[in-house]
Amino acid sequence: RVIDACVAEMPGGGWRLWYNNERDGGIVIRSGAATNFNAIDPALLRDREGRLWMSFGSYWSGLKLVELDPATGRLLRPEAAPHALAHDRSIEAAFIHQRGDQFYLFGSYGWCCRGINSTYHIRVGRSAAITGPYRDRDGRALLEGGGTLVLASEGPFIGPGHPSIMAIDGREWFGCHFYDATQRGRPTYALRPLGWDAEGWPLVGKWSTSL
User: Fold this and answer.
1) Does the chain have fewer CB atoms within 10 Å around its N or its C terminus?
2) Is the pTM of this model over 0.70?
3) 3-class DSSP state for residue 143?
4) pLDDT, tens only, 42-78
5) Are 72 and 79 spatial neighbours (Cβ–Cβ below 8 Å)?
6) Are 42 and 64 in contact (CB under 8 A)?
């Protein structure tokens, strides 16, 4: 498996491989028999110092992190092993959010892609460094199976996963997909309002917008 880099002039489309004049196309990182990580489910974060990071991973040895060259999108240190962020029997689809002096690592746990039988749910941990170690609200390391529950199945909203955070008109929203039990498990994307408690942990509001 590989993670590619594509670019477009506008968010609406016209995507093309970033390195389309090179033999390896748009490959950023590759996994295979010689690696202990699974190169899928990428998510990018440019931190406040301007450094560009990519989290990724699914099952295998868990969630990983690499630093990219902001000018090229390629691995900044291709010889270095990815940083290990979190591990569990079933974990994938990482997303890292920087807030204040903390980095928050969200991950999707359980089984996806089974419609209304999906067990996907989202957990979080945080760290003062983007490379970790990440710990949950109770101090458990995410590399040792920890993770504070953020969002799980609720009524007809089954198996939320693949989290993201966006700001719209100064308000933060939590995005994820789920399986709609009222539509025979149809995959659906939703936005929910995002807040933070007094101790700095995320609070996801009521289901708001389905797309």
Assistant:
1) C
2) yes
3) helix
4) 999 999 999 999 999 998 899 999 999 998 888 999 9
5) no
6) no
